[in-house]
Design goal:
81 residues, mainly alpha
Length: 81
């Protein structure tokens, strides 16, 4: 399987905002998460985050994955195995 990709954030030219429609909300979440996970941005913010904030973020992401994806999807799409 291919490595990680973050093309959406560079290619999307639509509205970024939340609450307008399900479609726009989904695109906004993708846009924000890809911006958030940018290597340079992560280097900046992770050193400023408190341990409780890092734990809360980790717990939220893990909880969402457990809720919405199967173990097989976790290994295929998240771990890229």
């Amino acid at each position: 399987m291919a490595g990680h990709t973050h093309r959406f954030v560079d290619e999307y030219d639509g509205f970024v905002g939340f609450g307008l429609s399900r479609d726009v909300d989904e695109k906004t979440i993708t846009y924000y998460l890809q911006k958030f996970s940018d290597d340079e941005f992560m280097e900046l913010i992770r050193g400023r985050m408190t341990a409780p904030d890092m734990e809360a973020l980790f717990d939220m992401v893990t909880s969402l994955m457990k809720k919405y994806i199967t173990d097989e999807e976790y290994h295929r799409y998240f771990l890229k195995e």
